[in-house]
Amino acid sequence: MLVKKLITLAGALGILACGACFLPDVVDRQPPPPLIPALQGVKTIVVVATNSSSTHYIDTDRLAAAIAKDINQRHGTKIRAVAGTTAGQPGATLSVDIRDESATSSPVDKSGRLLWTFEPKVSATLTSSDGQVLWEEKEEVHKVKPWITTNDEAEAWKEFGRREWALPEILGPNFPEAMLYGRW
C-alpha cells in the first residue's frame, strides 16, 4: 500500500515538475486590429495634460505620465506614448484638459473606508503633427470609484492622484482602443 502511495505521489510531483500547473497563461495571439488610417506612420504620441478647473486637484504631470504608461501597456502597436515633450517632431499629440473636478463619497464601510465617486469633466484631442484632429472627446465624464479612508474631499483627490491605475480611467476604461483603433 505504501508503494502505491509513493508511486501516486511521485506521479503527481512529476506532473507538477513538468509544469502542468505552473505554465504561463495561454496568451491570445491574435494580432491587434488595424490602426485608424490617420495613425499609419506615427511612431510617437506625446501626452500633454492641463487642468483648467477651478480646484486643480489632479496633478497634470502625473496624469500625463499615467496616460502614456497606460497607452504603452494596453495596445500592441509600435506607437510609443511619452509624457510631456520629446526631442524631435512627435507623430501626434494627445492633449488632455481637466475642465471640472467633482467628487462625492458614500457611507463608511466596516473597515472605515468610503467609496468615493470621482467625476472629472475631461476633454481630450489627438492631433497629428500637421494639425489634423485624429480623435476627440469633449466634456466627457467617466466615473472612477476607488475606496479611500478620508472624508475630506481635498485629501481624497490627493489619494486619487497617487493611484496610478485610477488616473487614466478619467478618459474611460477603453480610451486607448477607441483612440487608436476607432472602437470601444
Describe this structure in words.
The chain is an alpha/beta fold and 184 residues long. It has a single domain (33-181), classed as Rossmann fold (3-Layer(aba) Sandwich). It has helices spanning 2-17, 60-74, 153-162, 175-181, and strands spanning 44-51, 80-83, 92-100, 103-108, 114-118, 121-128, 133-141, 147-148. A hairpin with a 5-residue loop joins strand 4 (103-108) and strand 5. The model has no long low-confidence stretch (mean pLDDT 85).
Q: Count the helices. How many?
A: 4
Approximately what portion of the residues adopt beta-strand conformation? Answer: 25-35%
Q: Mind telling me the CATH class?
A: Alpha Beta
Counted up, domains total 1
Helical proportion, percent range: 25-40%
Mean pLDDT: 85
Order of helical and strand elements: HEHEEEEEEEHH
The CATH topology corresponds to Rossmann fold
> Rg to the nearest angstrom?
23 Å
Low-confidence stretches: none
Q: Separation of termini?
A: 60 Å
| Helix/strand/pairing category | alpha/beta
- Shape label: flat
Summarize the biggest pleated sheet: 5 strands, mixed
* Strand order in space, largest sheet: 2-1-3-6-7
* CATH architectural type: 3-Layer(aba) Sandwich
Could you write a compact summary of the structure shown?
This protein has helices spanning 2-17, 60-74, 153-162, 175-181, and strands at residues 44-51, 80-83, 92-100, 103-108, 114-118, 121-128, 133-141, 147-148. The chain is α/β, with parallel strands linked by helices.
